[in-house]
Amino acid sequence: ALKRLRGLIWEGQGKWKELVEFLDREILAAQNRNDKPNLKDFYTKRADANYALAKYNEALFDYLRLRLVYEGDAAQKAKVQCRTGSCFMELKGTDWITRAERELVQAKLASVDPWSKEAGALLKKLEELKGAAPKPAAAPGTTAAPAATTAAKPAGTAAAAPAATAAAAKPAGTAAPAAK
């Protein structure tokens, strides 16, 4: 009981590093006892503490573990999805935009405050990050087509090949170089 009180004090004081070290020991002990109810709380608190320490990789592992545990609890599931999406945004790993967006959309759709509001704010930030991502450079001697041009094509039509695009941009009466 005294150990748990110490953990609560560290949490209340924002002593996240001490709390993570304490929870690492408590999780190991709870695993050895097969104490599932306490494990859920310990993993949640450790994930939140690592998130507060900006240790997003460690937090992400615990949040991903908790996604299954909180399936029936809408508020906790929304929090876990929101934080999972935020961790993906911070880590910027493989397919991070897709993964973050999926988690944040699900959290926002849960309509559980404050997590749906936080998810909405993070989705806006994600859109800004996607817009700020470097665009592929145009090949030398060509001009890049605006994104709206390719997006406006009707479904089922193929995008023009670069040579065809360059040929279309030439004045009438001049031929594009022949393909080899």
Overall number of strands: 0
The low-confidence runs, each spanning 5 or more residues with pLDDT under 50, are: 144-180
Basic shape:
globular
Oligomer: single chain
Number of helices: 9
The largest sheet is:
none
Strand content range: under 5%
Query: Radius of gyration over alpha carbons?
Result: 25 Å
- Helicity level, as a percent range? 55-70%
Element order: H for helix, E for strand? HHHHHHHHH
C-alpha end-to-end distance: 79 Å
- The structure class reads mainly alpha
Mean pLDDT, rounded to whole units?
74
What's a quick, concise take on this entry?
By secondary structure, the chain is an all-alpha fold. Helices cover 69% and strands 0% of the residues.
Question: Mind explaining what this structure looks like?
Answer:
By secondary structure, this protein is an all-alpha fold. The chain is 69% helix and 0% strand. It contains nine helices and no strands. The longest helix is centred in the first third of the chain and has 18 residues, at 16-33. The relative contact order is 0.06.
Topology at a glance:
Elements (H helix, E strand, L loop, with lengths): L1 H12 L2 H18 L2 H17 L3 H14 L4 H18 L4 H14 L5 H18 L14 H5 L10 H8 L11
